[in-house]
């Protein structure tokens, strides 16, 4: 597994790599992770179940992505491949420069490569055009690709010019043993607790959330918002709270460690996801597993994730989102939380993801 994004950074990609690696180890495969160093976290570290992680001395420059060094990373990468006896290199996320370099070096040395795409990107803005051109170069000789949703699969095929027959849709999953419902933990009492946990960025729709909160608080005096996460849009949330006098109606928790996410989710009745683009969205699966009704923007692959009885889908604009929240509020206190959890448990688990990923390993080895 190769990616710029891994522990101690926390997010959907990092969770996917960690959980998939553990599941593959449990199935009898040898798995190592290669990423760049994070502060004092350098060299070789061992994690749960003996997962070996190489924190390489490569310096990140923006959002924990590294510089493209062409062949600067090649000697170290080659030594790791030979030392560990690797057969297949599995890279993650289009914006991970380390992963893209690993694909190039792996094909140079004759290793088979698999790539997993976790995000959707456009075709019109300068950044996406530049990224898409880079992907066409690096993916020109890839053995197989995995997308976390069918929407993501189509997006990857179009923007990276990858043969659709080489791309397979395998969804993310959630650890349902950790994300369990507990209605007794809902706090404060006698309120409708609405939870939102995400990075506070434009891409995650924080601007929509800022417009939605005052309207819901005005129409529903019992509404109480619990917001977790941090980012550049935190300032506009603070300004909105001060402007409308909602300090006692909106609780800002800041950045939340992934181990504490469940403790926040079980406090709520309703979960909001206002993202402007999502290829899958693990957050809404975690919320549903904890017994919350979900209101989410109908973008990307979100509509593929949950059945209709668990989610209200809204257009990515404040007015329609408010309407869907109003539709969900009368039902959110009568949710069969444990039934939601059982349904999620039967639909999503990492063992299943690993079992669906494993067939691509011999396929990539036998391609030539």
Description of the structure:
By secondary structure, the chain is α/β, with parallel strands linked by helices. The chain is built from 13 helices and 15 strands. 37% of the residues lie in helices and 18% in strands. A six-stranded parallel sheet has the order 12-11-10-13-14-15, sandwiched between helices. The model has no long low-confidence stretch (mean pLDDT 93).
Strand percent estimate: 15-25%
Number of strands: 15
Shape, principal axes of CA atoms: globular
**Share of helical residues:** 25-40%
Summarize the biggest pleated sheet: 6 strands, parallel
Task: Compose a concise summary of this entry.
By secondary structure, the chain is an alpha/beta fold. It has helices spanning 12-26, 74-84, 97-109, 126-138, 150-160, 206-219, 234-244, 261-265, 282-289, 318-328, 337-347, 350-357, 360-365, and strands at 32-36, 43-46, 52-56, 60-62, 65-66, 88-92, 112-117, 144-147, 167-169, 192-197, 223-228, 250-254, 270-273, 293-297, 311-314. It contains 13 helices and 15 strands.
Element layout with pairings:
Layout: H1 12-26, E1 32-36, E2 43-46, E3 52-56, E4 60-62, E5 65-66, H2 74-84, E6 88-92, H3 97-109, E7 112-117, H4 126-138, E8 144-147, H5 150-160, E9 167-169, E10 192-197, H6 206-219, E11 223-228, H7 234-244, E12 250-254, H8 261-265, E13 270-273, H9 282-289, E14 293-297, E15 311-314, H10 318-328, H11 337-347, H12 350-357, H13 360-365
Parallel strand pairs: 1-3, 6-7, 7-8, 8-9, 10-11, 10-13, 11-12, 13-14, 14-15
Antiparallel strand pairs: 2-3, 4-5
Helix pairs in contact: 1-12, 6-7, 6-10
């Amino acid at each position: 597994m190769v990616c710029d994004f891994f522990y101690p950074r926390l997010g959907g990609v990092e969770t996917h790599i960690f959980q998939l690696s553990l599941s593959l180890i449990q199935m009898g495969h040898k798995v190592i992770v290669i990423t760049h160093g994070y502060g004092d976290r350098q060299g070789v570290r061992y994690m749960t179940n003996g997962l070996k992680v190489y924190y390489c001395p490569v310096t990140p420059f923006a959002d924990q992505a590294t510089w493209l060094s062409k062949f600067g990373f090649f000697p170290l990468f080659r030594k790791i491949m030979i030392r560990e006896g690797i057969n297949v290199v599995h890279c993650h996320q289009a914006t991970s420069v380390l992963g893209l370099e690993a694909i190039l070096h792996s094909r140079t040395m004759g290793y088979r490569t698999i790539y997993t795409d976790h995000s959707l990107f456009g075709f019109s803005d300068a950044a996406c055009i530049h990224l898409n051109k880079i992907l066409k170069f690096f993916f020109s000789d890839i053995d197989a690709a995995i997308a976390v949703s069918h929407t993501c699969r189509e997006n990857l095929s179009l923007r990276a010019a990858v043969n659709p027959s080489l791309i397979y849709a395998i969804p993310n999953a959630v650890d349902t043993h950790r994300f369990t419902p507990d209605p007794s933990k809902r706090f404060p009492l006698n309120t409708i607790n609405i939870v939102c946990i995400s990075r506070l960025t434009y891409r995650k729709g924080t601007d929509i959330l800022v417009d939605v909160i005052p309207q819901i608080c005005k129409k529903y005096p019992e509404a109480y918002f619990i917001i977790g996460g941090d980012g550049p849009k935190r300032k506009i949330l603070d300004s909105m709270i001060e402007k409308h006098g909602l300090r006692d109606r909106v609780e800002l928790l800041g950045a939340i460690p992934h181990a504490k996410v469940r403790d926040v989710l079980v406090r709520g009745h309703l979960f909001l996801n206002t993202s402007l683009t999502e290829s899958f969205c693990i957050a809404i699966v975690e919320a549903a597993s904890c017994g919350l009704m979900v209101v989410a923007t109908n973008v990307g692959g979100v509509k593929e994730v949950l059945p209709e009885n668990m989610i209200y889908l809204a257009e990515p604009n404040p007015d329609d989102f408010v309407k869907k929240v109003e539709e969900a509020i009368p039902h959110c206190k009568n949710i069969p939380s444990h039934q939601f959890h059982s349904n999620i448990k039967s639909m999503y688990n990492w063992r299943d993801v690993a079992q669906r990923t494993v067939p691509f390993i011999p396929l990539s080895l036998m391609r030539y």
